[in-house]
């Protein structure tokens, strides 16, 4: 499903339930220590999806461990992103020669609690949400905004190793299935091993509402047009 909003150079694997043949590799077992059974199965299936996606790139199975702030550690010369929610797990990966960073997120198509929405949505975003709701009231635009903000952070952090708050991205969701995230930070330079001299001023992504799920994706490509969005 998520491949519909990702370019073909990004390899994808997804699952709509936990897979009985999914197993953890050494190192991942330690990460999952103490998880309740439900969380362990979710974690295991998501890692299994990651290895399936990497296999599509010709990359041998490896443990997907965690780095700073829990970011997945991908094999050398690859980049990727993971997501999971009730009834869905997915991984998206690409060769670093083609893609600098990927952010994907999946959420149930259900309303956000009011206190959460107020804490993550800027006034400008809430105004645009109201307009979108008049056009398509069946979509939970508040939850879609949350998903897009999650995708923004997952894209941003591997490039910069800097924190980015919900209030530091102004997201414009559009009816054509695309969105733009303006980064409201004055300093977009990486603080660790730079892949870019500076992160683009905006990320461009795509979204999909299907089967009771809301999906968002961002791809920052390795080339002159680093601000281009997924599917470009």
Give an account of the 3D structure.
The protein has helices at residues 28-31, 37-56, 114-120, 123-135, 141-160, and strands spanning 11-15, 65-66, 72-73, 78-85, 88-95, 99-108, 169-173, 178-183, 202-210, 213-221. It is of the alpha+beta class and 232 residues long. A five-stranded antiparallel beta sheet has the order 6-10-9-8-7. Strand 7 (169-173) and strand 8 form a beta hairpin. The longest helix has 20 residues, at 37-56. Mean pLDDT is 92; it is low at 225-232. GO terms for molecular function: transferase activity. Pfam families: 4PPT_N (PF17837), ACPS (PF01648).
Low-pLDDT runs: 225-232
Q: What count of structural domains?
A: 2
* CATH architectural grouping of the largest domain: Alpha-Beta Complex
Q: Calculate the mean pLDDT score and round it.
A: 92
Strand order of the largest sheet: 6-10-9-8-7
| Coarse structural class | alpha+beta
Percentage of residues assigned to helices: 25-40%
Query: Helix and strand string, N-terminal first?
Result: EHHEEEEEHHHEEEE
Strand content: 25-35%
Number of helices: 5
User: What assembly state would you assign to the polypeptide chains in this entry?
Assistant: single chain
N- and C-termini, Cα separation = 18 Å
Largest sheet: 5 strands, antiparallel
CATH class identity of the largest domain:
Alpha Beta
**Overall radius of gyration:** 17 Å
Beta strand count: 10
Describe the global form.
Answer: globular
